[in-house]
Write a structure and sequence with these properties.
- The protein is mostly helical.
- 64% of the residues lie in helices and 3% in strands.
- It folds into two domains: 256 residues, no CATH class; 197 residues, Tetratricopeptide repeat domain (Serine Threonine Protein Phosphatase 5, Tetratricopeptide repeat).
- It is globular and about 65 Å long.
- The N terminus is likely disordered.
- Bound molecules: zinc ion.
- Zinc ion binds next to helix 5 and helix 9.
């Protein structure tokens, strides 16, 4: 069985959009002005525009993890930290880059990327949260302003592509990556502006540690992760972790962040089972060799220290090797002790769905949704399963219900709506849903085209017509604001 990331064919669908679940509904009006005293560098609206162009470049240059659970975990952890940061209303977007290098970065517009390599290197949740809190602080403290400034001197897609290439660590390997038309001098300038100064680093550590403590996460996570990165530079030699090229770690800095952490003392939470499960999930699902992964977990569960994470890994490894029955057995055993855990339930339902046990899968999703009403990850799985089971009408009703919640208005969920509508809805509804996907991917122009097409369909009620027209007006305003500069 060729494994695909848990996103099914239905989720990616026939509609061709850039691959990712990353999205966040952002308009210039939502952005608080951070009160930058110079005021001349970049306006909040320009930052939104640069952020959208940056994210498009990231999608073009990197593979993003589209597994709803891994992506959802990072978003939840990120949201928890943002809620306890100095800018809780700033529209951050967290996403996972499929790349084994140890790296994390903050881009314009609050886009924060975490490489899978970093997630696997972090030993516990507080270490991962430490890096994320540090990146959040670079955004809230406006440390990227100097890099944004280049946007005023160069054409926007070019500078966005350049920033993306540098932050992803591909700029040196592939000088052409989305950066045509950039001279070596300009590229060097941007690189220098992206390298945070020591003062910036210390400030991001200080603010980040405060965010960790406020979030109830162990503040020692940050110095502990940096210390390990610092030690690893000796081993890496020339190919040191990418993270260190933009965030130099010195012994002095580690000592300082350690004493900051001491001010708060150890937080309650060092780790969570969910973090261990997500790591195992990455390890097994991302492995190039499923047979080796299976052997690995078969021996891991025999150890005395083996816990639920090892058994979950074994279940996923069985699944990847096509041993669906054994996989199900492992998951059912885990659910005996921990029946309500969504990670086990969704894995079981996914396997059931692939093994043709459609009814069992659908009722497991439904039951899980009744345990956690409004949970967006389970909702997405359920809608995708309904479509796959040929129940597009129910899928459409379910996704429309989900979209009443503002949090649900992500590109991934709009894509599901478009898919369900294309099968069972009126034709104009597919256009309306697609318009939202395009807008979230930073193309209001394509979104407007979709809405115009929607209005051309016959049989629209007056109510729907008015709604589409109102949305069209909003999108035209967004586009006009962009073109003004
Ligand atoms: Zn930094």
């Amino acid at each position: 069985m060729k494994f695909r990331w848990l996103i099914t064919a239905v989720l990616s669908g026939t509609l061709v959009y850039p691959h990712s679940f990353v999205s966040s509904e952002i308009t210039g009006n939502d952005l608080p002005d951070f009160g930058d005293s110079s005021g001349s560098l970049i306006s909040p609206a320009q930052e939104v525009e640069l952020g959208a162009a940056f994210m498009n470049s990231i999608r073009a240059q990197a593979t993003l993890v589209s597994d709803p659970e891994i992506d959802g975990y990072i978003r939840q952890l990120g949201d928890r930290l943002v809620a306890n940061s100095d800018a809780p209303s700033y529209p951050f977007t967290f996403f996972v880059v499929k790349d084994s290098s140890v790296n994390a970065f903050a881009g314009p517009g609050g886009y924060i990327g975490i490489h899978t390599g970093l997630m696997l290197t972090a030993r516990n949740e507080s270490e991962l949260a430490g890096v994320m809190a540090h990146e959040i602080a670079h955004v809230t403290q406006r440390h990227l302003l100097r890099a944004y400034e280049s946007a005023n001197q160069m054409n926007l897609p070019t500078v966005a592509g350049m920033i993306a290439a540098i932050l992803l660590g591909v700029a040196t390997e592939n000088a052409d990556a989305g950066i045509a038309g950039v001279s070596a001098i300009q590229a060097g300038n941007i690189q220098r502006q992206l390298n945070f100064t020591r003062a910036n680093e210390k400030e991001a550590d200080r603010i980040g540690i405060q965010t960790l403590a406020r979030s109830g996460i162990d503040p020692y996570g940050m110095p502990s992760f940096f210390e390990r990165l610092h030690q690893s530079t000796r081993l890496y030699g020339n190919s040191m972790p990418e993270f260190l090229s933009t965030h130099p770690v010195t012994t002095d800095r580690i000592a300082e962040s350690m004493s900051r952490a001491e001010e708060y003392g150890h937080g309650k939470e060092l780790d969570s089972l969910e973090f261990q499960l997500i790591r195992v999930r990455l390890q097994v699902l991302d492995s190039n060799n499923p047979q080796t992964a299976l052997k690995d977990y078969q021996s891991r569960v025999k150890k005395a220290s083996a816990g639920p994470a090892e058994h979950y890994g074994l279940a996923l490894a069985y699944w990847r090797n096509g041993a669906d029955e054994k996989a199900q057995k492992q998951l059912l055993a885990l659910m005996k002790d921990d029946p309500d855990r969504t990670t086990y339930r969704t894995a079981l339902a996914q396997i059931q769905l692939e093994s043709g046990q459609t009814q069992e899968a659908l009722s497991l999703y439904k039951d899980t949704l009744s345990l956690y009403p409004g949970d967006l990850i389970i909702g997405q799985y359920y809608v995708a399963a309904l479509i796959q089971a040929g129940q597009a009408k129910q899928a459409r009703a379910q996704v429309q219900k989900m979209l009443r919640n503002k949090q649900a208005r992500t590109a991934g969920i709009y894509k599901l709506w478009a898919k369900a509508a294309s099968i069972s809805g009126p034709a104009w509804e597919t256009n309306v849903a697609s318009a939202e996907v395009y807008n979230l991917y930073g193309s209001p122009k394509l979104a407007i085209d979709q809405l115009k097409q929607a209005l051309n369909h016959k049989g629209l009620s007056q109510y729907d017509q008015a709604r589409i027209q109102a949305r069209l007006k909003e999108l035209k305003q967004i586009l006009a604001a962009r073109q003004k500069r």
